[in-house]
Amino acid sequence: MNNAIEVQKLCKSYKDFSLNNVSFTLPMGYIMGFVGQNGAGKTTTIRLILNMVQRNSGSINILGMDNIKDEQKIKQDIAVVFDDIYFVDNWRVREVEKALKDFYINWNSSLYSEYVTKFHLPVDKKVKDLSRGMKLKLMLAVAMSHDAKLLILDEPTSGLDPVAREELLDILSTYISDGQRSILFSTHITSDLEKIADYITLIKRGNIFYSGTKDDLLEGFCIVKGGPEDLEAPLREKIIGLTANKTGFSGLLPASESKYLTKEIITETPSIDEILVYISKGEETYE
Ligand SMILES: Nc1ncnc2c1ncn2[C@@H]1O[C@H](COP(=O)(O)OP(=O)(O)O)[C@@H](O)[C@H]1O
Ligand SMILES: [Mg+2]
Questions:
Q1: What's the rounded Cα separation, in Å, for the pair 76 and 104?
Q2: What predicted TM-score, i.e. pTM, was given to this entire model?
Q3: Cβ of 43 below 6 Å from ligand 1
Q4: How do 18-27 and 65-66 pair as beta strands?
Q5: What is the crossing angle of helices 132-145 and 162-175, to 10°?
Q6: Does residue 147 belong to any structural domain of this protein?
Q7: What is the extent of the structural domain holding 253?
Q8: What secondary structure does DSSP assign to 212-230, as a single string?
Q9: Closest ligand 1 atom, CA of 203?
């Protein structure tokens, strides 16, 4: 099995929103950032992957298995962290293990103890009294103690301070380092992804704008800036998220369109954040 996740032509319609032919592949052993504005469809896609929501059409394979037919088997091998903790508030950290370990064939108690110690989790504290960072670490300790081959994290870093975010990124990088595990990491805090993601899937209003390696994404676009006289018709049509006024213009240009650049135009390498901002302004799609 070479892929952790294969989503093909996934469609789902709600009254005011639809996911349209969403396709992406996360190869085994890598981290994929799943990026998009609030409301773009990240959580909906994740719920469809987990079979918490019924799709209209398309197919989803997880670790080589069908996400619906093999749901129970898949659950043994994946772990999910939503932005809300799903453990009972009144459980103490040490009771979390007792409550959950029987669900998992591969539960490893000594590994759990190791993580609890390593993450400095207070065993006598109740879940509700833990900080956000601590709750997240507790969820990760559970995820990693049943040897999950795939972690799916939905906006795990929102609300975390920079130190806790950095710690999380270290934990995740270490977790996939043996090449047998993969992570799908949904976020709108894209600076996290610049550090650890190998692949990026960018979703915009229910449509995939880009899915591929992070390096190809960053090399695939440049920010262009120039004076009003530099914005000729063919270039104007190719710019994504164009902002133009009397003093000049800026926008995002696919690298494949660089023939339209003149030497007066300044080009810069974008960050993932800048790409997200520009594509959110424009209507164009990039194939
Ligand atoms: N159960 C539902 N019924 C109707 N609309 C929904 C439902 N779940 C999500 N949506 C809509 O789908 C859109 C995408 O939401 P979501 O997937 O949560 O976005 P994201 O996680 O990227 O912020 C939103 O407009 C949301 O209102
Ligand atoms: Mg969401």
A1: 6
A2: 0.91
A3: yes
A4: unpaired
A5: 10
A6: yes
A7: 218-281
A8: EEHHHHHHHEEEEEE-GGG
A9: 22
Please report, in tens digits, the pLDDT of each residue of the chain (287 residues total).
689 999 999 999 999 999 999 999 999 999 999 999 889 999 999 999 999 999 999 999 999 999 999 999 999 999 998 876 667 778 898 898 988 888 899 999 999 999 999 889 999 999 999 988 888 889 889 988 998 999 999 988 877 788 888 888 898 999 999 899 999 999 887 888 888 999 999 999 999 999 999 999 999 999 999 999 999 889 999 999 999 999 999 999 999 999 999 999 999 999 999 999 898 885 444 43
For residue 43, how far is its CA from the centre of ligand 1 (angstroms)? 7
Q: Is the CB of 159 under 6 A from ligand 1?
A: no
User: Could you tell me how many residues make up the chain?
Assistant: 287
Q: What is the DSSP letter of 97?
A: H
Is 83 inside any structural domain? yes
Decide if 149 is inside a domain.
Answer: yes
User: Would the CB of 206 count as within 6 Å of ligand 1?
Assistant: no
Residue 198 is encoded by which pair of tokens? 């190998």
- Verify that 48 and 134 share a domain, yes or no: yes
146 and 260 share one domain:
no
When divided into structural domains, the chain yields a total of 2
- Proximal ligand: closest to the CA of 38: 1
Give me the residues paired with residue 18 across strands.
13
Pocket test for ligand 1, best of 10, 13, 14 (most atoms within 8 A of CB): 14
Residues 98 and 240 in one domain: no
How many angstroms does the Cα of residue 183 sit away from the middle of ligand 1?
22
Same domain, 167 and 235: no
14 lines ligand 1 (CB under 6 A): yes
* Shared domain check, 119 and 50: yes
Residue 286 lies in a domain: no
The last residue of a domain, from among 153, 175, 205: 205
**Atom of ligand 1 at shortest range from CA of 46:** 17
